[in-house]
Write the structure tokens for this entry.
Amino acid sequence: MAVARPGDGVLSLLRLYQLEKMQCNVDHFYKVNNLKKDQGLVVNQAYKMPLYYYEYNGKSIRSTIGNNNWDKAVRIQNYNREMVKAKLQAREYEQSKALWVPHHELECEAPANLINESPEKDKKDEIIAIPVGFKENLIFGKDYAKVPIVSSKLKGQVYYIVAGHGGPDPGAVGKRGGKLLCEDEYAYDVSLRLTRNLISHGASAYMIIRDPNDGIRSGQILDCDYDEECWGGKKIPRNTKAKLTQRAETVNGLYNYHKKKGVPDANQKMICIHVDSRTGNEKIDMFFYHFPGNEAGKKLANTLRQTIKEKYKQYQPNRGYTGTVTPRDLHMTREVKPTSVYVELANIKNNFDLKRIIIEQNRQAIADWLLQGLIKAKG
């Protein structure tokens, strides 16, 4: 049993136990708890997890569970070690005799770490369908390539997520513990998490800037590199105007494609994600830009801002929130066809703000909160 914390949904609760990556775990959670799809969790209520509990026989995992598969036993052993590290189990199973076996190891067709490679001709497609209830995308990294489809709230919606800078341009640069922090790496990680969230709720979502080997990452220090590309494997220009033109034209090309397929203007949106750079003593809250005079962009930005404000009020009631919505003539809000919003996450030079982007759970929370705002703003 696991107790739902404030802000927990099904995926975040399963993520705590490293069980969210297999759709059969998600489905089993709903089944054993008699929940309907899209039904929320009740704070402080205990829920059954997609785990089986065995009394370890003191000999081997294989003889304990009655399955002679060596690889499976190793995965189960590693899983139990991870649960101890996460302080979800008090002691190793050899001492406690309590062995946890994830549901997917016994009931699903493939282990969680098996990534079904897609045909080479499909590798450049943003969204690749695999077995029912899943979408797979290697851009998220091996551990996150399979995306559980948890709802259809955003079915018919198309999103273009543009992580700021990239390639030869790292964007703003900060330092922590003597190590460089590059804006593009943190904007990229939040963008990946948001894109994955959108797909999990039925949307079509495109990562316009793409890194061939950096999927969703853990840890606080995300190494700076310069190998990001624009959608379609295009090299990112060094010149700022050429770089932004490339992105806008890429978004517009995809927009035109979906429009020809019958997707209305109101269902297509672009979100640019950046990290700001100011003096080190200036704290800022997440804030938003839209193109001057664009009412759809203004409305979307205000919805996102209001959602963030509500989340802070819920989780940090004494903190307050000062994020703003401002009209600004930026290339990426002016030159793209979809409704667009430009998001600044934090001040990379401020030590307090840094917690918002270097702590992995905070990066995921930002992605989760932006998702909720986009659900509210659905056209």
In short: The chain has a mean pLDDT of 89. The longest helix spans residues 240-260. The longest strand covers residues 268-276. The CA atoms of residues 313 and 320 lie 7 Å apart.
